[in-house]
Every structure is written in structure tokens, then in C-alpha cells.
């Protein structure tokens, strides 16, 4: 601004100089002075030429200075004109650019207006369609509410009144008062007194707390339908500035029919559970009671075997008696296992299992039986681990091996040696256990029937030595219980492969090899002179066990009940080497009670004998550090068990 103002003042001066040159001013002054009377009176005498020449030079200098000033002023004016022209050009260019931009903006605005009009038209159509759909949805909701016995409500918490849908009025049995909302106490007036506190508490919590949703169930007294169960579900949809609920909306449902169904289901479930408990108790009692005489007979036969000497006829009769006892025990075990599975009395305990040790033990168990049948029994060791119930898996593999050894020998087995192989293959996410044989095979039409109870191929004479037809049916039931798949592949004349797929374990299972057990002779020598505390309520088994143990050189302290043990225990002067007890005892006592009672005084290893084959018995015995034997117990098995627990102690 200062530059422009100074420039403007210079322009004015230059203009003034142009209008009134200095020479002209002086010329105009001189005549005026000459004409003034005072000037005439005081007129100087004529000057000399030298003075005139000086005046002329002075005037000339002044004129030159004025000319220079004039030229400078002209140059400045020219520069100003050039700058003004440049400013004008820039201004014109800017105006053109602005005009173009305004024109582009105008085009864009026109297009935007057209697009906006199109969108408004589309949204208008969509809004009309949405409104039409909303009307349909409202009609459908109203129909659904009437069909489902439901109604909607809206609670204005600040005003403390509730707006109900027509369905809600019908649900509650209240009359509408025009379009006026109802106060909450109208609802409270029809709620049964015993349910009123819970509903009031829920309303207070909803009003005061920050919960977004709630549900409450209560009963009302309907004027026409009697007592009805109502469920009210609410959600906070608005809050005041302090965060407290301001508006709550929700749904009311009639639960009366559902409550009646639930009550019927509860009663049916209770009855089923009661029946299941009764079945379990019955099967456990039957298993115990039926195995008792078999156990006594087996022990008496063992005692008798040591008393008859070398009489061939007596030995033959005794061997036949032993076979009969074994067959009876096998049939009884199969029937009881099948009954427990049918009754749902088998508990499942899933764990990670390393089956290698199990496969080794099972093959050792069936080796003598396989040799008698002229069968070469082998197995392929594995380091894989699976996830399943270990005890039920053992029963599946045992039954499959028993079936293969009993029926897997080829026709004419005396000429061709049979082969049975136990192994496993890793599949996608599972381990498939396989029992293979080179037996006669199974015709395709019979492969489904072999899993039925008492169905045996090529055993019409019902030879007990080949089983009773229960093994594969038990395998199928256990597999179904565990959610496993059992399959069979067979070629007639070449053999069969039975397979069961078990889930692969996600973790590696470390297997500790069992402690070695001495041979029978060495174990008997170790048992000689030991004291066994025997608890058995059945007199026959108690006497037969006492006789058997005594023949082995064992000192026996025998009692019949926990009560007798409580009396005898304080009088025992020396600690027994091992505790041998039945599991099921009079008065509801169990072998665990016996173990706990004895171990209050001494830390004694224990062996529990039971006729109950339920897996939970084995888990219970292991939990208290005892060995479990299932009746009927073979004398050799009893020797090994007693020697094992004494050795480990």
C-alpha cells in the first residue's frame, strides 16, 4: 500500500509539472510584476548583458532540470501503463479461468442434481416397497403372535406406563381402555402371589440397573383360561442422559403348553433314570450272585485236583468239570455284558490310550487257546495312541480275537495251520484296529447277521467250545456306544478282516512297561508264610478261598462282614501282608470301605474280587491302589495277583 500511495503522489506531481512548466510560471509572473504600480515605482535600472546571460543560463538549467524531470515522469508513467496492462491481462486470464471453473462446477451441479433426482426417485420406490413389506410383516407378525400365543409390549419407564399389542391384551385376559397405555400395576394385579416378588424384583432391576436384556417367567390368573405360564422377554432400547433405561420393549409368550410338556418329560426322565438305576442295581446283584457259585466251584475243583492224586478217571472227570465251569462262566459273562449294554448301565470314560501294551497282553492271553486250535497267533506292535475308553476298547479287541481264534481256522484245520493277526493302520484322523484270519470266510448275505445275538455260522450243533454267539453282538453294541465304526471284509475260502476305527490321540502317550511278575512256583514260594486278611460274606467262597490259600502255605484271617472286621481288626497283633476282599458286602458296604478301614491302621496292599464287570469298578479299584479280579477267578490268576501286589509293596 505505501508503494502504491507514493507512486500515486509522484504521478500527481508529474501531472502538475506537465500542466504548469517552470518557464511558463516565471513568464507569467514577470509581466504581472511589470504592471504592478509598486513595481513600476521601484523599477531597477537596466541590467548589463553579463547579468542577462547569467539569468538565461540559470533559466536554461532550470528548463533542463524540468525536462529531465519530465522525461523521468514520462518513463514512470510508461512503466505504470505497462504494469497496468500486465495486471489487466492477468485479471482477464483469471476471469477466464474462473469462468471455466464455474462452468465445470455448473455442469457437475447439473449432473449431481440429475443423479440426486434419480436417487430420490429410487429411494422413493424403495421406501414404498419397504412400507408395503412392513405392512405385510406386521400382518404376518400379528398372525404369528396370535398363532403362537404371543404379544408385544412397550414400557415407557419415565412415564411409567406400558403400551400393549392387541395380542398381549388377549394373552393377559385384560380389556383395552381405548388407546390409552396401562400402568404396570394392572399386570401385577393378575400375577399369582407366589410369583409376584420375582416379577417385581425383575422390574426394579430393569429400572435401576444397566442390563440390556432380561427374561422372567411367572403365572397369571386368566379370567377365562385359568392359570397360565407367561414368559416376558425385554430389551432396553433407549436410555436417559444418566444411562438409566428410559424405554424398554419386549415380547410376552404363553408357556403353559411347553411347561406341561416339560413336566411330562421330567417325570418320564425321572422314571427312566429310576428304571436305569434299578436295572444297574439288578444286573450288579445278578452278576454278583450268579458268579458266586461259579467261583466256589472253580476253587473247590482246584482244591480237589490236589487231592485226587493220579487217578485217570478222576482227573478226566475233574477236567470235564473245569471245562463246564469255564463254559458257564463265558456264557454268563456274555449275557451280563449284553444286558448291561442294553440297559445303558455302562459308563464311558474317554482318555488317551496307548494300545501297544493292551495288544501284547491280549495276544499272550489267547496264545494257548490258539495253539490248541492249531492257529498261529501274531500281532504287530504299535506306538500310536488313540482317544477312547480303554476298558471298552479292551473288550472289543478281546471279543474280536476270541471270534477269530474260535472261528478263524480254515476248513480242514488239521491239514492247514490257521493264522490270526492283530494289528492297526493309521488312517486320516483315526487308527483302524484289524483282526485278520485265513479262515473259511463269511458269505456276503451273512455279514449282517453275524452281529446279531446267538448267531453263529457253521456251528449248528451249538458247540460251546466255539462260543455262544454273543461276542460280535457285544462288539457292535460297544462300538455304537463309543461312536465307532465296525466293518468286516471277507472272501469265502480265504479269510476275513474285522476292523474298528478309533480316533487318533492328539498327544503322545508314554507307556511304562508293567513290573515283571515271577513264575507261579516262585510266587507260591514267596506267598508261603504270608498272612492274608480275607473279607468274604459268601460262606462257600470264603471256605474255598481259605482252603486254597492254606494249601499254598498262606495264613488266612477270614471275616464275613465289615462289622466283624471292625471287631477283629484291633485284636490282630501283626500286619497282614495283603488284603483280599469281595467288593459287594452285606449292609451296603463295599470293598472300598474295607480298604479304607484297614488302611487306617496299616498301609496294606489290596486285591478286590468282584462279579461286577462294569468299567467303573476297575477305575475305583485303581483310584485306591488295588488290583481288581473278576469272578470266577482262576487259582493261577489269584496267585499272580497276590504275588504282584506283595512284590510291589
Automatic annotation (TrEMBL):
Keywords: Coiled coil, Kinase, Phosphoprotein, Plasmid, Transferase, Two-component regulatory system. Residues 531-646 form the Response regulatory domain. Its EC number is 2.7.13.3. One of its GO terms (molecular function) is phosphorelay sensor kinase activity. Residues 285-506 form the Histidine kinase domain. InterPro entries: CheY-like_superfamily, HATPase_C_sf, HATPase_dom, His_kinase_dom, HisK_dim/P_dom, HisK_dim/P_sf, PAS-assoc_C, PAS-like_dom_sf. Residues 1-10 have a biased composition (Polar residues). It is an enzyme of class 2 (transferase). Residues 1-53 are annotated as: Disordered. Residues 214-267 form the PAC domain. The keyword Phosphoprotein applies. The modification 4-aspartylphosphate is found at residue 582. SUPFAM superfamilies: ATPase domain of HSP90 chaperone/DNA topoisomerase II/histidine kinase (SSF55874), CheY-like (SSF52172), Homodimeric domain of signal transducing histidine kinase (SSF47384), PYP-like sensor domain (PAS domain) (SSF55785). Residues 53-133 form a coiled coil. It catalyses: ATP + protein L-histidine = ADP + protein N-phospho-L-histidine. This is histidine kinase. It comes from Azospirillum brasilense.
Amino acid at each position: 500500500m505505501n508503494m502504491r500511495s507514493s507512486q500515486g503522489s509522484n504521478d500527481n506531481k508529474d501531472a502538475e509539472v506537465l500542466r504548469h512548466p517552470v518557464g511558463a510560471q516565471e513568464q507569467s509572473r514577470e509581466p504581472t510584476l511589470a504592471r504592478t504600480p509598486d513595481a513600476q515605482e521601484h523599477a531597477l535600472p537596466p541590467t548589463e548583458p553579463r547579468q542577462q546571460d547569467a539569468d538565461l543560463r540559470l533559466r536554461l538549467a532550470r528548463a533542463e532540470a524540468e525536462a529531465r524531470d519530465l522525461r523521468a515522469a514520462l518513463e514512470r508513467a510508461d512503466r505504470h501503463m505497462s504494469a497496468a496492462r500486465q495486471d489487466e491481462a492477468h485479471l482477464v486470464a483469471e476471469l477466464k479461468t474462473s469462468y471455466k471453473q464455474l462452468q465445470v462446477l455448473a455442469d457437475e451441479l447439473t449432473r449431481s442434481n440429475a443423479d440426486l433426482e434419480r436417487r430420490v426417485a429410487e429411494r422413493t420406490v424403495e421406501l414404498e416397497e419397504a412400507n408395503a413389506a412392513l405392512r405385510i410383516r406386521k400382518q404376518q407378525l400379528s398372525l404369528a403372535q396370535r398363532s403362537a400365543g404371543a404379544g408385544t409390549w412397550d414400557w415407557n419407564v419415565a412415564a411409567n406406563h406400558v403400551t400393549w399389542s392387541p395380542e398381549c391384551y388377549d394373552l393377559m385376559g385384560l380389556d383395552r381402555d381405548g388407546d390409552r397405555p396401562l400402568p404396570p400395576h394392572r399386570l401385577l394385579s393378575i400375577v399369582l402371589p407366589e410369583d409376584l416378588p420375582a416379577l417385581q424384583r425383575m422390574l426394579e432391576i430393569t429400572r435401576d440397573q444397566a442390563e440390556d436384556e432380561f427374561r422372567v417367567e411367572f403365572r397369571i390368573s386368566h379370567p377365562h383360561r385359568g392359570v397360565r405360564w407367561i414368559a416376558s422377554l425385554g430389551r432396553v432400547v433407549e436410555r436417559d442422559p444418566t444411562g438409566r433405561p428410559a424405554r424398554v420393549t419386549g415380547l410376552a409368550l404363553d408357556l403353559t403348553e411347553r411347561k406341561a410338556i416339560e413336566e411330562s418329560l421330567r417325570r418320564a426322565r425321572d422314571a427312566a433314570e429310576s428304571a436305569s438305576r434299578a436295572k444297574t442295581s439288578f444286573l450288579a446283584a445278578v452278576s454278583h450272585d450268579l458268579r458266586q457259585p461259579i467261583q466256589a466251584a472253580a476253587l473247590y475243583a482246584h482244591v480237589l485236583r490236589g487231592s485226587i492224586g493220579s487217578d485217570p478217571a478222576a482227573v478226566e472227570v475233574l477236567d470235564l468239570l473245569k471245562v463246564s465251569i469255564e463254559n458257564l462262566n463265558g456264557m454268563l459273562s456274555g449275557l451280563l455284558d449284553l444286558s448291561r449294554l442294553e440297559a445303558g448301565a455302562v459308563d464311558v470314560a474317554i482318555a488317551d490310550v496307548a494300545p501297544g501294551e493292551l495288544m501284547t497282553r491280549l495276544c499272550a492271553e489267547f496264545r494257548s487257546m490258539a495253539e490248541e486250535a492249531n492257529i498261529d497267533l501274531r500281532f504287530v506292535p504299535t506306538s500310536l495312541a488313540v482317544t477312547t475308553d480303554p476298558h471298552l476298547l479292551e473288550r472289543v479287541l478281546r471279543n474280536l480275537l476270541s471270534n477269530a481264534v474260535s472261528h478263524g481256522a480254515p476248513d480242514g484245520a488239521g491239514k492247514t495251520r490257521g493264522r490270526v493277526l492283530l494289528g492297526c493302520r493309521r488312517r486320516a484322523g483315526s487308527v483302524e484296529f484289524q483282526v485278520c484270519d485265513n479262515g473259511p470266510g463269511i458269505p456276503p448275505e451273512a455279514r449282517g447277521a453275524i452281529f446279531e445275538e446267538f448267531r453263529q455260522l457253521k456251528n449248528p450243533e451249538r458247540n460251546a467250545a466255539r462260543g455262544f454267539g454273543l461276542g460280535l453282538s457285544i462288539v457292535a453294541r460297544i462300538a455304537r456306544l463309543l461312536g465307532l465304526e465296525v466293518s468286516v471284509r471277507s472272501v469265502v475260502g480265504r479269510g476275513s478282516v474285522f476292523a474298528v476305527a478309533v480316533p487318533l490321540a492328539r498327544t503322545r502317550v508314554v507307556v511304562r512297561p508293567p513290573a515283571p511278575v515271577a513264575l507261579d512256583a516262585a510266587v507260591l514260594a514267596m506267598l508261603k508264610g504270608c498272612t492274608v486278611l480275607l473279607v468274604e460274606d459268601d460262606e462257600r467262597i470264603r471256605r474255598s478261598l481259605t482252603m486254597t490259600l492254606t494249601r499254598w502255605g498262606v495264613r488266612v484271617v477270614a471275616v464275613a462282614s465289615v462289622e466283624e472286621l471292625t471287631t477283629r481288626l484291633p485284636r490282630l497283633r501283626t500286619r497282614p501282608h495283603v488284603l483280599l476282599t469281595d467288593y459287594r458286602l452285606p449292609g451296603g458296604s463295599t470293598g472300598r470301605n474295607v480298604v479304607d478301614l484297614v488302611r487306617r491302621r496299616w498301609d496294606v496292599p489290596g486285591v478286590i474280587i468282584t462279579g461286577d464287570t462294569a468299567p467303573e469298578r476297575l477305575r475305583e479299584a485303581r483310584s485306591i491302589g488295588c488290583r481288581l479280579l473278576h469272578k470266577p477267578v482262576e487259582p493261577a490268576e489269584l496267585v499272580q495277583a497276590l504275588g504282584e501286589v506283595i512284590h510291589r509293596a
